[in-house]
Design brief:
The structure holds 2 protein chains of 2 kinds. By secondary structure, chain A is an alpha+beta fold. Chain A has 4 helices and 3 strands. Chain A has a 3-stranded antiparallel β-sheet, covered by helices on one side. The chains are: A alpha+beta, B alpha/beta.
């Protein structure tokens, strides 16, 4: 009986020891330092605001890709431009008048830039969320 | 105050190219760099240690000498560097490239009016910011050897 108690006590001590090491030595800077976690939250907010505004900006730009169709008529070749884009499961091909082609191409290029920028913000938001969530989880672990 | 620094690598390459472009169009005659990105200069010149850097760079527009003077399309200068304009919810226009944003602010003389103000001469919009005058009261001018 005494021996069993001693074993149990040593296990509890070992657990207490591990608990201590887990929550102090390997604790991340984010959860230890309020200044750093505050900065990360500010950065997250900035990125979310930027992403929201980028989404709004991109909504006014055309999507898809421009394609050219050539047709021969009376020994002459005519070019017709179409904007191909997806709407749900449908692929839509919209005719673009020649005078608007350059403007649409410019807008498509700009959309690509916006999409690339949005991706970089999404990546950053995911990264910041991961760090901040991890810090939160550990803090809750401490309380329990 | 004018200070001359020998170290040409105070800023990251993207900040350096932005400052150079603004300097070449004379933007710093009427405005100044503020916020965390001015600290590397102070660190180099005065030995002040400051480690934090943010992902946005702020410029305070202090004076506009004349609206009739030659206009400079600063938006074009920035977009030529690969930045894209983004209109924020507040109405202010920021510029972003790879998570790095450029923003303009100016002193708000009083009241509570936070409305975005346009500077036609520079083709930019700035955010009125209370007490900004303290930043621009006695600015230091750094000679960028690389930009001359």
């Amino acid at each position: 009986m005494l021996r069993a108690c001693k074993v149990a006590l040593s296990r509890i001590k070992a657990l207490a020891f591990f608990h201590h090491t887990k929550h102090n030595k390997s604790m991340k800077v984010v959860e230890k330092d309020k200044v750093i976690s505050g900065m990360l939250r500010d950065e997250l907010k900035r990125c979310q605001e930027m992403l929201e505004s980028l989404e709004k900006s991109i909504s006014g730009l055309p999507k898809g890709a421009m394609s050219e169709r050539k047709k021969r008529y009376m020994n002459k070749v005519y070019s017709y431009y179409y904007l191909k884009y997806r709407e749900g499961e449908k692929v839509i091909s919209k005719h673009i008048p020649n005078r608007e082609v350059q403007e649409i191409l410019k807008k498509l290029a700009l959309r690509k830039k916006y999409e690339k920028e949005m991706q970089s913000y999404e990546k950053k938001i995911a990264y910041l969320n991961k760090i901040l969530r991890a810090g939160k989880r550990r803090r809750h672990g401490n309380i329990a | 105050m004018e200070i001359s620094l020998k170290n040409k690598n105070i800023f990251t390459s993207e900040v350096q190219e932005l400052l150079r472009a603004f300097f070449l169009v004379g933007f710093f005659d009427e405005s100044l760099l503020i916020g965390s990105w001015v600290m590397p200069l102070y660190q180099e010149a005065f030995g002040i240690s400051y480690v934090l850097r943010t992902m946005d760079i702020d410029f305070a527009v202090k004076f506009v000498f004349s609206e009739r003077a030659e206009k400079v399309d600063l938006e074009k200068v920035i977009t030529d560097l690969g930045y894209i304009p983004v209109v924020m919810r507040s109405g202010i226009r920021r510029f972003t490239r790879e998570n790095f944003t450029v923003e303009f602010v100016a002193h708000r003389k009083g009241g509570r009016n936070n409305q975005v103000v346009s500077i036609r001469k520079w083709n930019i919009q700035h955010h009125p910011f209370l007490l900004l005058i303290f930043f621009s009261a006695s600015p230091s001018q750094q000679i960028l050897e690389t930009s001359r």
